[in-house]
Specification:
Blueprint lengths: L2 E6 L2 E6 L6 E4 L26 H10 L8 E4 L11 H10 L3 E6 L6 H10 L3 E6 L13 H18 L5 E8 L7 H8 L4 E8 L5 H4 L8 H17 L3 E3 L12 H4 L2 E4 L4 E3 L8 E5 L2 E5 L5 E2 L5 H5 L2 H11 L46
Helix pairs in contact: 2-3, 3-4
């Protein structure tokens, strides 16, 4: 596979190419049956659609070149169940020995779908939940939908005598719904939910920004994390929690977990944040996210993209946090670099310099 040469200051770095890809995030569709006001998609100008079946089959075939690959996670900016061939796709990946995980809003998960998921052996289903009185207009309450989906999956597992489809919850915590979490926990207790992945809110407008819970002081963070941990543990649900205070430590979990993101149209992005263009609010400051890609699977194989020198160097830099840190800079408010993700003041493109994922404030399941 060779190596990549990176000139860094007065040093020359030799980076061996590798095939350490362990997790693929697969955006099977960018369509969604909901229209949530706080969603990234609200500021999109991009076309929407489903992954072409021929493209999916090529991706599934390309995965064989990565001996360490463990999981394919159907997760993106759309609802995976909007794609009419999702169950078939899961079956193909399972026949290739892959673990398959799906994150869904649960609204399309009826009894027949639950039985089909169990039959093909999907490993993990993450059900997104919001509290009932999230303050944005037009938000659909999801607690009743969530409970119904959990019951459908439990019945399907029981009927098949199968341990497939481990049920997990994905919860976005906000200032307004934090007091309601004990009620959410009570509604999930004893329902067969194994774990909950908690994330903070990434606002896309100033109204939503007022509802974020972070950053807290270290003392406040201890209190919040303790409450969440205790409540979920008491219900028998393993909690995976974010930070709530702003740490100087930076860890890109996408890179450290050897992951990549494949869009519905075959473009390969380094992470969920950079897969589409949209507007985000970073601690009260508006920022334009410019999508960034290292290859196109309509014209290249996944191994060729993974081995691209620019992508290899990018991953090497991020593992060592060798990029600017906007959130620690006293010039932040007047800096032009901080307005987009195009580049940072160290000359890196794309810019990860004020990413809230690498501060573990925002998490993906």
């Amino acid at each position: 596979m060779g190596s990549v040469i990176l000139d860094l200051d007065e040093s020359r770095i030799v980076i061996p190419k590798d095939r350490r890809l362990r997790k693929v995030y697969l955006e099977f569709s960018t369509r969604c049956n909901l229209n949530c006001p706080m969603c990234f998609r609200e500021s999109w100008t991009e076309p929407q659609g489903d992954m072409d079946w021929g493209l999916f089959l090529r991706v599934a075939s390309d995965l064989a070149e990565f001996p360490l690959l463990e999981t394919v996670h159907f997760l993106g900016m759309g609802e995976p169940f909007c794609h009419p061939r999702l169950i078939e796709a899961v079956g193909i990946l399972k026949s290739g020995g892959r673990r398959v995980r799906i994150t869904t809003n649960a609204t399309l998960l009826d009894g027949a779908t639950a039985r089909a998921l169990v039959a093909v052996g999907a490993d993990i289903i993450d059900l997104s939940v919001e509290a009932d009185d999230v303050p944005w207009p037009g938000r659909v309450s999801s607690l009743e939908i969530l409970s119904k989906a959990v019951e459908e999956l439990r019945e399907a597992r029981k009927h098949a005598g199968s341990n497939a489809c481990e049920i997990r919850i994905a919860l976005v915590v906000t200032r307004s719904n934090f007091p309601l979490i004990p009620g959410i926990v009570r509604s999930l207790k004893g329902k067969g939910v194994s774990a909950v992945s908690v994330s903070n809110l990434l606002p896309t407008d100033m109204e939503a920004d007022a509802n974020r819970l972070y950053p807290l002081t270290l003392e406040e963070e201890v209190t919040v994390r303790s409450k969440l941990y205790t409540q979920f543990q008491y219900a028998g649900i393993k909690p995976e929690l974010p930070r709530f205070s702003l740490s100087t430590e930076r860890h890109c979990n996408f890179v450290r977990s050897e992951s990549c993101f494949i869009r519905w149209d075959g473009l390969v992005a380094p992470c969920l944040r950079l897969c589409h263009g949209y507007r985000e609010i970073v601690l009260g400051r508006e920022k334009e996210v410019i999508p960034w890609f290292f290859g196109d699977l309509k014209r290249q194989g996944l191994a060729e993209v993974w081995d691209d020198p620019g992508y290899v160097s990018f991953r090497w830099r991020l593992r060592r946090a060798l990029y600017a840190s906007c959130l620690d800079c006293n010039l932040l408010r007047s800096c032009e670099y901080a307005k987009t993700t195009e580049s940072d003041c160290w000359g890196n493109s794309p810019a990860c310099s004020d990413c809230l994922w690498d501060r573990n404030l925002i998490r993906c399941p």
